[in-house]
Automatic annotation (TrEMBL):
The keyword Transmembrane helix applies. It comes from the Bacteria. The chain crosses the membrane at residues 6-22, 34-53, 65-90, 111-132. This is Uncharacterized protein. Keywords: Membrane, Transmembrane, Transmembrane helix.
Amino acid sequence: MVYIFVYAALLPFFYYLIRVKSEMLDEDVKQIKTHFWIILGIYTVVLMVWHMYYRFKYEVPLVHFGGPLMIFVGSFAGVIFLCFLIAFFLMTKGRPNKIQLFKASFGPKQFQFMLPAMGITFLVGFILGLPLTEKAKYGDDLQYVYDQFADTAADEAISIVFVSSEKDCYEDCEDTKYDTLLYVRNNKDEDIDVRLRMQFALESGDTLEEFKQFRLEDSAIEPVEFHIDRGPWNPVTIRTDERVVNYRWQHQWRSAEES
């Protein structure tokens, strides 16, 4: 499920690959390329509509240029462009009359679009598809938080909901830390300044204590974050070597107008 949107981005490329044959007329090649752009365009529009959905429902930014994803995308695009540039100059040696030789090196004319098609579909998948999977998880977590807060009595100025304590990895997770996530809600009808002290109980029985001062807007719901920033749709409260199994908290508050 995590990479479904990335894999779906390859559909236009596979369409191009399947339809192209060794012997084709120029008109056929042009038609296949047109179909490729149409399929890729529809896929891109669908992804953008999903991004807009999360933007308006959960106020998630449309794009966030940061983190390993953008580093990977930038590196991938840079390496492809550099290889292309080096190959071009090595084969043409700066002489325009050698450009046909460069084009011919990619095989028959109908196959010359294959590398650009593959690169474009991979980039679209990673730039639009992968962040969407992260936003989908963020949306599910936030919906769970909304439901929990709806069933929580507002006896205090703030309420806190525990979401998860898990490793964000799929294999070789031994050295990966646990990401624990909690959300806090302002139960007052005004902006408040909060002094929050939290104690986390780990699986081994050890405890970890954190302190945070922050302002909560009227009726706001937001993640509790201690010194960690993984981007707008990857909130983390704390990162530990062991799973968090329980927590306690104390708080003081005052109206923001008194500050």
